[in-house]
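Hi V.,

You were right to ask for the full record rather than a summary. Here it is.
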Amino acid sequence: LFSYIFKKLNLNARYNKILIENEQKLLDYVHDIKINKTLLGINITMPYKETVIPYLDLLTKEAAITKAVNCISIKNQNLIGHNTDIDGFKQFLIHHNINIKSNDYIIIGSGGSARAIIWTLINYDAGNIYILSRNKQTAKTLIDNFKPYLNKSTLQLLNNSFNSKFCNIINCTPIGMAQNIDTSILESLPDCYYNI
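Predicted structure:
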C-alpha cells in the first residue's frame, strides 16, 4: 500500500515493517529513530499505542486527549505523537454516509484503537457508548479520561442494565486479525439488532 502511494505521489520513500517484541525493544527503537537522520516518521500499532507516549517529546491535541498514538513524526530530532486513527475513522464515516448522532454503540476493547473510536463518536454526538472489555481497569480508566469531554453522549461499561433494541458494534481488538485469538468475550454481547 505505502509503496503504491509513494509511487503515485512521486516520492523517494519506502515503508518497512519492524516487529518490536517488548517494551525495552520499543524504548531502544525510539531512541534509535530520534537520532536517525533519514527517517521522517513511523507507525505504531497494538499493543504499543499507549506505551510509547512517555518516550515522545510532543503530542498533538488528539493524541494527548485520547492518550493513544499510532504515528510518530520526527522533526528536528523531536518525536511528535499523532493519532491518525481518528482521521481514518472520520473518513470512513463520511465515505459511507454513516450518521453517528444519537445512535448507540458497543465498543469491544479498551486499548488505543478504542480511544480513537470513542473520541470520534463523542465528537459526532453518539448516544450511549458501551465498552465491552476483558480488562475492566483499563476500561474504567478510559471512561474517566473521557468524562470531561462527554456532552451529548454517555460512556459506560457494558453491563446487565443494557437496554437498547438496536446497536452498532465496533471491534477494537485483535479478534479477526490473527489466528488463535480468544473470542470468548463475544459471548458477553447482549441480544439485540446489530450493525457490525
